[in-house]
Each structure stands twice: as C-alpha cells, then as structure tokens.
C-alpha cells in the first residue's frame, strides 16, 4: 500500500463561504491566474478535472477524467500553513493562532534575556522589504531582525556572515519555547546573505511549529507504516508521526525527492509540501512567476502519471490560498482543490466540508484499526 499526498502550498480555487470574515471575499488564486493570462493552461491537471473545478468546461460535454476531483473547505479557524496542514492530517483547531502587528514587550524581553541577544525591528513587514529597511543596521550592530507578517509567525532574520546559522537556530529554539504561551503558530529562522541593495534569503530557512496533538500521521506510523516527509512537512508537525524527513530547497527539489522515494519504496506514505507557489510568488504578488511554477509542476505530473499503479493512492491538494491578484500580501481564505488518483476511478467528489477528509481517506486506505472521525473518507473501498 503506497500513498502520496502533495500539498501545492497556497493554490486555492476560490474564496471560502466564510471568506468575508477574513477580508478575502472574491479571492480566487487559480481562477484569477487563468483570468489574467488567457493563454495559460495546465493540461495534466485538466486531465483529472481542473477545468471542472474552476468553471472552464462546456456544460454540455461529458468528460471521462483520468482521476477524481473535488474541492475542500477548511473547518478550522485561520488561513495559515500550520492550520491547513494540521487539518489535512485530521486535526481541526477551533481557536486560531495569534496574529500580531507587534510582539508583546514581555515576550521580546524574555527571548532576549534567555538567548542573550538584542533585536531590532519588531513590526509587520514583508520578508524582502524588512531586509532592505533593517539589513544595513543589522550589519553594523550584529542585532538580529525580529518581524512578523499577517500570518501567525515570529520571524528572526540574520546575515550568515554576521550570525552563524547554528546560532540563529539556537535563538529560534528559545523563541519557540516562549512563543507557545502566546499561541504563535510558527517561529521561522530566516538567514540571508549579500550586501545592502542586494540582500538574498538563503535556503537554510528553518520552521519551528507548535507541537500538534495526535494526527493520522501518528496512527499510520504506529501501525508500522513508514511516513516520509518532503519539504517543510516535518517542521510543520515538529517531527510527530514522521519516519524520515527530506528537507528541500525548491519545488524542483521537492518533485525530484518524490520521484526518488516513489521509486525506492513499494509501500508507505510520502507527504510533500511544494512551497514556491506561496513563498516565492504568492506573497510577492507575482502572477507570471506563479503561473510558471504551476506549469513546472504540471509538466512533472505528466511524467509522474505512468509511475502510478492502480492500487496506489495519490492525493493533490493545498493548504490555503494566496491570490497573487489580491490586495495586500497575505494568504487568502479559500477552498482548496482535491485531486485523487486511485484504481482508475473518475468521480466528482463534490465540495468536502473539511480538509480532514484527507486524513479519513488515508486511514481508510491503510486499513488502520480505527477510522479517523474528524473527516469522511472519499474512497469507495479499501484495497484488497
């Protein structure tokens, strides 16, 4: 029994019913990319129902797709990476993670005292803009940059020649312990390099999430089934329920790692996050770049199709939206796509009421002793 879950980070397919509460009514990441670029196409995702999801089919034409398709609504409160991934794994949270424009003085002082450090910054900014604004001061003083964004994140940036990455990680580990009391979803180490006017964030980013309650990943691993994490998955789940972690530096590296694991293992779960859509293009509102990244994935998917056996389970989905045509630079509260390749089935899976249907389906597929009750399996049958 071999399964793959690929999270296309931020690839939403239209605002959620409650999007107005988040200021996101009208957001549609994938739909607006298609609207902005009339010649844009994703032929391999279209083979499994993409056009149907975004309303680009001829209603009079009946199409037999290569897989099943649908969309999912988030039940948890929030629109961040951690919340979305946790719900995909069956953990629905009712209280959203805290979002700050400025971190409380008590929290900042405690981190500074315990880490023997002094910060500059402590405000909400885009990661690239904050380097332009405070990078030169950081080079002069050696003080790391503390900032946040519209997400529930506490980010600490430092130049690798000024503050070694190992030391930055140590500071972030201390910050993570203190941030739990404030319900901050993630602490992120943001090493960078370069000179004023040309600062660049390096690939040695590291995320420190809050420790989740039990998820389906724990249940799968406890059943003796290997769980391979690709990209930042292990960080998001703090290693809980993970057998092996394979960090990656880009979507391309993530897709290569999926290929490698798929060819090496005839069973187990591979859980992958492809982050470039969100981190590199969504937050920067780069429509053309987002589209190129989607095309790269779609091309890879076409080459991956022949490697999928009938009894394998492949799920392609997302964790939230990040409409590159929308105002601001924040995530957007959207429904997410659900594409399923399994036993040559072609079904319209409809609109699911929770991302946790993925967890329920994995429990069904791997024949776990107990079903995952926060969601409903979208598989017709378990494998023989």
Q: Your description of this structure?
A:
The chain is α/β, with parallel strands linked by helices and 384 residues long. It has 2 domains: 2-95 and 212-365, Alkaline Phosphatase, subunit A (3-Layer(aba) Sandwich), CATH 3.40.720; 105-208, Alpha-Beta Plaits (2-Layer Sandwich), CATH 3.30.70. The chain has 13 helices and 14 strands. The chain has helices at residues 29-36, 43-46, 50-53, 81-88, 105-115, 127-141, 165-179, 216-222, 233-236, 251-264, 276-282, 287-304, 357-365, and strands at residues 2-8, 68-72, 120-124, 145-148, 153-159, 186-195, 198-201, 206-209, 227-230, 244-246, 268-274, 313-317, 336-341, 348-352. The chain has an 8-stranded mixed β-sheet, with helices on both faces. Strands 3, 4, 5, 6, 7 and 8 form a 6-stranded mixed β-sheet that branches. The longest helix is centred in the last third of the chain and has 18 residues, at 287-304. It is globular and about 60 Å long. The protein starts with a strand and ends in a 19-residue tail after the last helix.
